[in-house]
Design goal:
The protein contains seven helices and seven strands. By secondary structure, it is of the alpha/beta class. The strands form two sheets. A five-stranded mixed beta sheet has the order 5-4-3-6-7. Strands 1-2 form a two-stranded antiparallel sheet. Strand 3, helix 3 and strand 4 form a beta-alpha-beta unit. The protein is elongated, with a radius of gyration of 24 Å.
Protein backbone atom coordinates (compact mmCIF):
# COMPACT_ATOMS: atom_id res chain seq x y z
CA UNK A 1 0.00 0.00 0.00
CA UNK A 2 2.83 2.37 0.89
CA UNK A 3 4.50 1.67 -2.44
CA UNK A 4 1.27 2.54 -4.29
CA UNK A 5 0.91 5.83 -2.44
CA UNK A 6 4.53 6.76 -3.16
CA UNK A 7 4.18 5.91 -6.84
CA UNK A 8 1.02 8.06 -7.11
CA UNK A 9 2.77 10.97 -5.41
CA UNK A 10 5.74 10.66 -7.75
CA UNK A 11 3.39 10.49 -10.75
CA UNK A 12 1.55 13.65 -9.70
CA UNK A 13 4.85 15.43 -9.13
CA UNK A 14 5.92 14.49 -12.66
CA UNK A 15 2.58 15.65 -14.13
CA UNK A 16 2.85 18.99 -12.34
CA UNK A 17 6.46 19.35 -13.46
CA UNK A 18 5.57 18.63 -17.09
CA UNK A 19 2.66 21.08 -16.94
CA UNK A 20 4.97 23.81 -15.66
CA UNK A 21 7.50 23.02 -18.37
CA UNK A 22 4.83 23.23 -21.12
CA UNK A 23 3.59 26.54 -19.69
CA UNK A 24 7.13 27.95 -19.67
CA UNK A 25 7.72 26.84 -23.26
CA UNK A 26 4.44 28.39 -24.35
CA UNK A 27 5.44 31.72 -22.83
CA UNK A 28 8.86 31.53 -24.50
CA UNK A 29 7.32 30.81 -27.91
CA UNK A 30 5.09 33.87 -27.47
CA UNK A 31 8.12 36.03 -26.68
CA UNK A 32 9.99 34.71 -29.72
CA UNK A 33 6.96 35.33 -31.93
CA UNK A 34 6.93 38.97 -30.83
CA UNK A 35 10.66 39.43 -31.36
CA UNK A 36 11.04 37.59 -34.66
CA UNK A 37 9.13 39.52 -37.32
CA UNK A 38 8.88 38.50 -40.97
CA UNK A 39 11.34 40.33 -43.20
CA UNK A 40 9.87 42.99 -45.42
CA UNK A 41 10.49 43.50 -49.10
CA UNK A 42 14.17 44.10 -49.88
CA UNK A 43 14.55 47.67 -51.12
CA UNK A 44 17.30 48.71 -53.52
CA UNK A 45 18.68 52.22 -53.76
CA UNK A 46 17.95 54.44 -56.75
CA UNK A 47 14.85 55.22 -58.70
CA UNK A 48 11.67 56.67 -57.28
CA UNK A 49 11.88 56.85 -53.49
CA UNK A 50 9.17 56.33 -50.91
CA UNK A 51 7.29 59.58 -50.40
CA UNK A 52 7.95 60.81 -53.95
CA UNK A 53 5.38 61.30 -56.69
CA UNK A 54 5.68 59.01 -59.70
CA UNK A 55 7.04 60.21 -63.03
CA UNK A 56 4.24 60.92 -65.47
CA UNK A 57 4.76 57.96 -67.79
CA UNK A 58 2.42 57.03 -70.62
CA UNK A 59 2.36 53.26 -70.99
CA UNK A 60 0.82 50.87 -73.49
CA UNK A 61 -0.97 47.77 -72.28
CA UNK A 62 -0.71 44.39 -73.93
CA UNK A 63 -4.20 44.75 -75.39
CA UNK A 64 -3.37 48.11 -77.01
CA UNK A 65 -4.79 50.55 -74.48
CA UNK A 66 -2.99 53.63 -73.14
CA UNK A 67 -2.33 53.74 -69.42
CA UNK A 68 -1.01 56.58 -67.25
CA UNK A 69 -0.27 55.92 -63.60
CA UNK A 70 -1.37 59.39 -62.50
CA UNK A 71 -4.86 58.61 -63.81
CA UNK A 72 -5.32 56.23 -60.85
CA UNK A 73 -4.57 59.01 -58.37
CA UNK A 74 -6.93 61.31 -60.25
CA UNK A 75 -9.66 58.76 -59.50
CA UNK A 76 -8.59 58.34 -55.88
CA UNK A 77 -7.17 54.86 -56.47
CA UNK A 78 -3.92 53.29 -55.33
CA UNK A 79 -1.85 50.97 -57.54
CA UNK A 80 0.15 47.83 -56.86
CA UNK A 81 2.75 47.41 -59.61
CA UNK A 82 3.98 43.84 -59.90
CA UNK A 83 7.05 43.39 -62.11
CA UNK A 84 7.40 39.92 -63.59
CA UNK A 85 8.64 37.86 -66.49
CA UNK A 86 7.13 34.84 -68.26
CA UNK A 87 10.40 32.99 -67.58
CA UNK A 88 10.44 33.73 -63.82
CA UNK A 89 9.24 30.67 -61.81
CA UNK A 90 8.93 32.63 -58.56
CA UNK A 91 6.81 35.28 -60.29
CA UNK A 92 4.49 32.54 -61.50
CA UNK A 93 4.24 31.05 -58.01
CA UNK A 94 3.29 34.43 -56.51
CA UNK A 95 0.57 35.28 -59.05
CA UNK A 96 -2.28 33.73 -57.00
CA UNK A 97 -1.10 35.69 -53.96
CA UNK A 98 -0.87 38.98 -55.87
CA UNK A 99 -4.30 38.64 -57.42
CA UNK A 100 -5.81 37.63 -54.07
CA UNK A 101 -4.35 40.72 -52.39
CA UNK A 102 -5.73 42.87 -55.21
CA UNK A 103 -9.21 41.40 -54.65
CA UNK A 104 -9.00 41.83 -50.89
CA UNK A 105 -7.94 45.48 -51.24
CA UNK A 106 -10.10 46.33 -54.27
CA UNK A 107 -11.92 49.04 -52.30
CA UNK A 108 -8.96 51.36 -52.90
CA UNK A 109 -6.32 49.44 -54.86
CA UNK A 110 -5.81 48.38 -58.50
CA UNK A 111 -3.27 45.86 -59.76
CA UNK A 112 -1.01 46.43 -62.77
CA UNK A 113 1.43 43.85 -64.12
CA UNK A 114 4.63 45.10 -65.73
CA UNK A 115 7.51 43.57 -67.66
CA UNK A 116 10.32 44.81 -69.89
CA UNK A 117 11.60 41.77 -71.76
CA UNK A 118 10.50 38.93 -73.99
CA UNK A 119 8.39 38.95 -77.13
CA UNK A 120 4.80 40.07 -77.50
CA UNK A 121 3.72 36.49 -78.22
CA UNK A 122 5.38 35.24 -75.02
CA UNK A 123 3.51 37.77 -72.92
CA UNK A 124 0.21 37.19 -74.68
CA UNK A 125 0.50 33.44 -74.13
CA UNK A 126 1.54 34.00 -70.52
CA UNK A 127 -1.47 36.21 -69.78
CA UNK A 128 -3.84 33.66 -71.33
CA UNK A 129 -2.30 30.70 -69.49
CA UNK A 130 -2.32 32.49 -66.13
CA UNK A 131 -5.76 34.06 -66.68
CA UNK A 132 -4.56 37.61 -66.06
CA UNK A 133 -6.84 39.27 -68.62
CA UNK A 134 -8.73 41.16 -65.89
CA UNK A 135 -5.65 43.25 -65.05
CA UNK A 136 -3.66 45.78 -67.11
CA UNK A 137 -0.36 44.32 -68.36
CA UNK A 138 2.30 46.72 -69.63
CA UNK A 139 5.67 46.13 -71.27
CA UNK A 140 7.95 49.07 -70.58
CA UNK A 141 11.68 49.36 -70.01
CA UNK A 142 11.16 52.96 -68.97
CA UNK A 143 8.95 51.91 -66.07
CA UNK A 144 11.50 49.34 -64.88
CA UNK A 145 14.26 51.95 -65.01
CA UNK A 146 12.14 54.45 -63.06
CA UNK A 147 11.90 51.97 -60.17
CA UNK A 148 15.42 50.53 -60.66
CA UNK A 149 14.08 47.00 -61.00
CA UNK A 150 17.12 44.73 -61.03
CA UNK A 151 15.67 41.41 -59.88
CA UNK A 152 12.29 39.73 -60.06
CA UNK A 153 9.68 39.47 -58.72
CA UNK A 154 9.54 43.13 -57.73
CA UNK A 155 6.61 45.23 -56.52
CA UNK A 156 5.79 48.86 -55.83
CA UNK A 157 2.82 50.22 -53.92
CA UNK A 158 1.48 53.66 -54.89
CA UNK A 159 -1.13 55.38 -52.74
CA UNK A 160 -4.29 57.22 -53.76
CA UNK A 161 -2.32 60.48 -54.15
CA UNK A 162 0.10 59.04 -56.70
CA UNK A 163 2.93 58.84 -54.15
CA UNK A 164 5.19 55.80 -53.78
CA UNK A 165 4.55 54.12 -50.42
CA UNK A 166 7.05 51.27 -50.61
CA UNK A 167 8.85 49.08 -53.13
CA UNK A 168 11.19 46.13 -53.18
CA UNK A 169 12.06 42.59 -54.12
CA UNK A 170 9.18 40.30 -53.13
CA UNK A 171 9.93 36.59 -52.84
CA UNK A 172 7.10 35.62 -50.50
CA UNK A 173 3.56 36.54 -49.50
CA UNK A 174 5.01 38.18 -46.37
CA UNK A 175 7.15 40.45 -48.56
CA UNK A 176 4.11 41.53 -50.55
CA UNK A 177 2.04 42.11 -47.43
CA UNK A 178 4.88 44.16 -45.93
CA UNK A 179 4.22 46.82 -48.59
CA UNK A 180 0.65 47.20 -47.30
CA UNK A 181 1.91 47.12 -43.73
CA UNK A 182 4.33 49.93 -44.57
CA UNK A 183 1.36 51.99 -45.76
CA UNK A 184 -0.49 51.29 -42.49
CA UNK A 185 2.55 52.22 -40.38
CA UNK A 186 3.44 55.25 -42.49
CA UNK A 187 7.01 54.09 -43.14
CA UNK A 188 9.11 53.47 -46.25
CA UNK A 189 9.60 49.79 -45.38
CA UNK A 190 8.82 47.35 -42.60
CA UNK A 191 12.53 46.55 -42.31
CA UNK A 192 13.26 50.21 -41.65
CA UNK A 193 10.51 50.35 -39.04
CA UNK A 194 11.71 47.22 -37.25
CA UNK A 195 15.28 48.54 -37.27
CA UNK A 196 14.15 51.79 -35.66
CA UNK A 197 12.15 49.86 -33.06
CA UNK A 198 15.18 47.71 -32.23
CA UNK A 199 17.38 50.79 -31.80
CA UNK A 200 14.77 52.40 -29.53
CA UNK A 201 14.61 49.23 -27.43
CA UNK A 202 18.41 49.25 -27.04
CA UNK A 203 18.39 52.89 -25.97
CA UNK A 204 15.62 52.30 -23.44
CA UNK A 205 17.12 49.07 -22.10
Amino acid sequence: MNALIVSNVVLWVLVVGLSLAVFALTRQIGVLHERVSPAGALTFSGGVKAGEALPNLTLSTLDGRTLTLDAYAANGRGVLLFFLSPTCPLCRALLPVVTKIAKEERRWLDLVFASDGGTLDEHTTYVAERQLEAFPYVISQELGVAFRVGKLPYAALIDENGVLVAKGLVNTREHLESLLEARRLGVASVNEYMGAQARDDEVNA
